[in-house]
TrEMBL record:
Its main location: membrane. Residues 140-206 form a coiled coil. This is histidine kinase. InterPro entries: CheY-like_superfamily, HATPase_C_sf, HATPase_dom, His_kinase_dom, HisK_dim/P_dom, HisK_dim/P_sf, Sensor_HK_Regulatory, Sig_transdc_His_kin-like_C. It comes from Saccharothrix longispora.
Length: 575
């Protein structure tokens, strides 16, 4: 690091030295390239310091130096150890740094990086002026210079005051703009709120229409059940009576015709039952009843039921399973329907070879694999076979019959049971359908990470929260419908419990919004109500929710209702 350049030395001993030291400070500041304001700061600082130094016995040496690195600065080094007077306070206020080092105090004023170092001639002239005899008129000139500095300072203050007034005026204009913007935003928010209210009204109207449509569909299927199933059952029963060997004898032709009537009636009855079961699955009213299942017995019954559907001796039906299969807890009726549908499809479209059902344990799941050596399904058709009523065109389809509901229905049931159904097929080689089910009872021990409880009544809400203990890790309680929608969107709960009588946005309206959003369409929902009527139950079933009467709020019933709600949610996800 380069040593500082010594500009000159000065001495302070009496009052007459005050003005010269001030002038020396101004001259030094000017030579090193400071602007007028900083020259005034340096001169004022040295004037105040000189008044402190004249009180010290004997002369005090003051050295002026120019530091060139690490950063350029003017250094005023005063050889004293007393820095307690008000002059030193001025130095600390007007200068950049005051450094006490041994028997000297250095006052530092930084220079801009763009300053031009003084030439040797300028330094020599500065030194000559500093060592010249002091002219009495210099004191007068210095006093005049001080007055000019004060005038300049006052003018600067006035300029700053005018600038401050201007800034205040601009700030006032800005405040007025902010007020106008706030009013505009408030008006827009009010309009948005009105739009939201209108949207809720429209949503309520759509919900009513949806409820009415659901009721109409329920009535339609009820009529189908009564008007079609009963006559068809009668036709089938009468045809069987006519064909009974113990009845009146029939000619061969009559017996053949009665057999055709019986076969057609049975086919029609099976189609009607399949349509009704599919409608129940779609509406969410198809609920699983979980219980332990004897798998070997179930598979034996299944083999005996579907073996007769084979096209002939060229097709072998094989049902194989591991020895010592673990207990499976599921809905036995639903599982039978799934496997019967899959085996029936495989037998319909297999002319020779085999149809196999293999049951294997894989980890915590049980896999039912139905494979055949049939005609297979083209890749372009494999996604469409899960569309309701769709049938893959082909020569074997012409005489196979059916509604095209078998595979969609089987997959819905598999999902309701907590599992999945996957299809793989190669044209000309065959098809393989895998149903995967959990070995444990679905959702019986599953704990929701977050449950949202939207119940305005304090007592009922407390009952619900107590019943959810062990079913949810945390519970968020809300009493307002609008807030419930905000929380549901923000926190994405894993379980929702709604009351019907929620203020601002009703419980069924909240349920409709949840079902309309992708992130919450499959969230299990319980609807709590004091009065449970058929209309509410139909609405809840249409939107895949489970109704819980207030009188039934207890840990056991709520646990069962949550399990049913999860099954309904899985059904919606599958659909």
């Amino acid at each position: 690091m380069t040593a500082p350049l010594v500009l000159f030395h000065a001495s302070v001993q009496r009052e007459a030295d005050v003005f010269p030291l001030r002038q020396h400070g101004r001259d030094a500041a000017a030579v090193v390239g400071m602007d007028g304001q900083n020259q005034i700061r340096v001169a004022t600082t040295l004037s105040d310091l000189a008044r402190e130094l004249v009180r010290v016995p004997g002369p005090t040496t003051v050295a002026f130096l120019l530091r060139r690195d690490p950063s350029p600065a003017l250094l005023v080094r005063v050889y004293t150890t007393d820095t307690s007077g008000p002059g030193w306070a001025t130095a600390r206020r007007l200068m950049d740094e005051v450094v006490v080092d041994g028997g000297a105090v250095t006052v530092v004023k930084a220079l801009p990086g763009s300053h031009v170092p003084p030439t040797a001639e300028e330094v020599a002239r500065l030194r000559r002026r500093a060592t010249a005899a002091v002219d009495p008129t210099d004191s007068v000139d210095e006093l005049r210079a001080q007055n000019q500095d004060l005038v300049q300072t006052l003018e600067d203050l006035e300029a700053k005051q005018r600038e401050l007034i201007r800034l205040n005026e601009e700030l006032e204009e800005t405040n007025q703009g902010i007020i106008a913007l706030h009013k505009e935003l408030s008006d827009e928010l009010e309009q948005t709120n009105q739009g939201v209210v209108a949207l809720y009204a429209e949503l309520e109207e759509k919900t009513t229409q949806l409820r009415e449509a659901g009721e109409a569909r329920t009535r339609f299927w009820s009529n189908i059940s009564h008007e079609l199933r009963s006559p068809v059952n009668s036709v089938v029963g009468l045809a069987r009576l006519l064909a009974d060997p113990d009845g009146d004898p029939l000619t061969d032709e009559q017996r053949h015709q009665v057999g055709l009537i019986n076969e057609a009636g049975s086919t029609l009855l099976a189609l009607i039952n399949e349509l009704l079961d599919t409608a129940k699955a779609e509406s969410g009213s198809l609920r699983p009843r979980f219980a332990p299942v004897d798998l070997p017995l179930l598979l034996a019954r299944l083999h005996g039921t579907v073996d007769a559907l084979a096209r002939g001796a060229d097709v072998e039906l094989v049902v194989d399973h591991q020895e010592g299969l673990p207990a499976l807890v599921t809905d036995e009726v639903m599982l039978l329907r799934v496997l019967r549908n899959l085996l029936s499809n495989a037998l319909k479209f297999t002319e020779r070879g085999s149809v196999r059902l293999d049951v294997r344990v894989e980890g915590t799941h049980l896999r039912f694999v139905v494979s055949d050596t049939g005609i297979g399904i083209p890749p372009t058709e494999q996604a469409r076979v899960f569309e309701d009523f769709y049938q893959v065109p082909g020569r074997l389809q012409i005489g196979a019959g059916g509604t095209g509901l078998g595979l969609p229905y089987a997959r819905r049931l598999a999902v309701i049971l907590g599992g999945d159904l996957v299809l793989r097929s190669t044209p000309g080689e065959g098809t393989e359908v895998t149903v995967t089910l959990p070995l444990q009872e679905p959702d019986d021990t599953t704990t929701a990470a977050l449950a949202l409880v939207v119940v305005p009544d304090d007592v009922v809400r407390a009952l619900v929260v107590a019943a959810l203990e062990g079913l949810a890790e945390s519970v968020v309680e809300v009493v307002d419908g609008r807030e419930a929608l905000v929380v549901a969107r923000r926190d994405r709960p894993d379980l929702v419990v709604l009351a019907v009588d929620v203020p601002h946005v009703g419980g069924t309206e909240i349920l409709s919004v949840l079902r309309g959003a992708d992130e919450s369409r499959s969230v299990p929902v319980l609807v709590v109500s004091q009065d449970v009527d058929s209309g509410l139950e139909r609405t809840a079933a249409t939107l895949d929710a489970v109704v819980v009467p207030v009188a039934g709020i207890a840990p056991g019933p709520v646990r069962e209702s949550v399990r049913g709600a999860r099954a309904a949610a899985r059904s919606r996800e599958a659909g």
